[in-house]
Write the structure tokens for this entry.
Amino acid sequence: MSLRMKPLVAAAAILVVAVVLSCSVKQHSGPLLKNSALEEAPDFQTVSKDEAEAETEADLLARAKRIHDDAVTMDSHVDITGEDYASEKVDPGIDNPELRCDLVKMKRGGLDGVFLAVYVGQRGGLDKAGYKKVHDIALKRFQAIHRLFEMHPAKCEHAVTADDVVRIAKTGKRAIAIGVENGYPVGDEIANLERFYDLGARYITLSHSRHNQICDSSGPEEPMHNGLSAFGKQVVAEMNRLGMICDASHISEKSFYDLLQVSKAPIMASHSGCSALNPHDRNLTDDQLRALKKNGGVIQIVALDSFLKKEPQAFLDALAAARAELGIPTWEEFYKLPENERKALRGKMEQYWKRRNTIKNEFAYVTVKDFVNHIDHAVKIAGIDHVGIGTDFDGGGGIPGFDNHGEALNVTVELVRRGYSEEAIKKIWGGNLLRVWREVEQVASDLNR
Ligand SMILES: [Zn+2]
């Protein structure tokens, strides 16, 4: 999650899928051009040029659909609305216009599984009072996700192992796993990790956008611990013992390298992009991608506009104009305000968030092609076994063409168009994530022997 507001209305989602698919058909009816990044990355099978040229557009779409249906697809990072998730107010069992990820859109888009995030923001201090407050918030969010399983037992099931995901996918239900975004609610008690594990948490994003007790975040310029703290090293060791994936999205570069040194298991960046394409603090540099490959880990490419591509000035100007019209501050200023002032502005911020989505779709400066460019780059540097998909839907993610899970096929179509083989696409859509999860499970079982 990068921006904290009520999730977006993804209205008329079906129409968007149809339009995007038909647009992409029109735009790409020429011969398939091989992507240069792929030619430099010979470690996986691509479709031969002759084969690709002989294929009609309709055949290509049919092939993409078949591969997509056949793959075990899993998204490593989706947010929930908060404590009201899976209640009368927010029902994820319907095609909910307030959600980019719900059980209906997942089914329509051929998404088998997802990690839902128990996200906890960080405005309190790194002290007992701050930890207590956020720990309670985290527990309520776990409860909200557990309510989903009770509300819709015919449509979804809780996945606590990688094998669970595959088994549940075969039943036609959605596999729902849980991750925790921000290690802040772990507080200063290692025992909380096992409590979270028992509630279903299978990964923890070590920090969010501020430094916490575990490590430095990629957000602030000045370091606090210079990487992983002494307590953070204990956290990683305990996560290895329990079988929880260490998530490096949001953590600083130094924290990332410290984590690779300390962790006995492969790690994941659950929702990040590539710095080489857009030098944003939330993205990984090529050196980090190479180190991730050595570690056996995986980068899950995020579908969030400002991480994928630098915003054009005209787009920023349009957002500023919308803020001025509503009389609201920037997010940065908003989070600095006292709680009562933030509460008073909440309604307007929600209006702005919806307005921002409309403006984003009007400008469409980021598309599925940009998203897949990040996949291409990560594959080129880290290899086909180390790249996946983590949208950050309902937490800031969503781009024209891949604005909700109902549109997931568009990504596969673009991958097929660029010459990715069936095997490669299956790795990207979940195979790599499940492999990392299984290896983390194996390390835990070895450590407990
Ligand atoms: Zn995030």
Observations:
- Residues 422-447 form the longest helix (26 residues).
- The domain at 13-309+366-447 is CATH 3.20.20.140 (TIM Barrel).
- The chain has one domain: 13-309+366-447.
